[in-house]
Specification:
- By secondary structure, the chain is mostly helical.
- Helix content is about 75%, strand content about 0%.
- Helix 1 packs across helix 2.
- The protein has a domain of about 50 residues.
Length: about 80
């Protein structure tokens, strides 16, 4: 798949070019690498949101906890 980027801010272009050179990659390869990292982060955040919902559902399914204060008082009196 080919795409064309237009109006890339100079600062971003310079940073991507510098990073590409530092990593021994072409500018194109560096941009692809950056896009891959961004997509991986989006997927990670999406998965974390799903896991959070699953955890919340699980927590809601647990029976309510009783007040522990009486048990603590009883234990202290021993």
């Amino acid at each position: 798949m080919n795409i064309t980027l237009k109006n890339v801010p100079d600062k971003i272009y310079r940073e991507m070019k510098r990073e590409a050179k530092q990593q021994g990659r072409s500018l194109n390869a560096q941009i692809i690498r950056a896009l891959e990292a961004d997509v991986a982060e989006l997927e990670r955040r999406r998965r974390l949101a799903e896991l959070r919902k699953e955890l919340d559902r699980f927590a809601a399914s647990l029976p309510p906890l009783e007040d522990s204060a009486p048990l603590i008082r009883e234990d202290r009196q021993r």
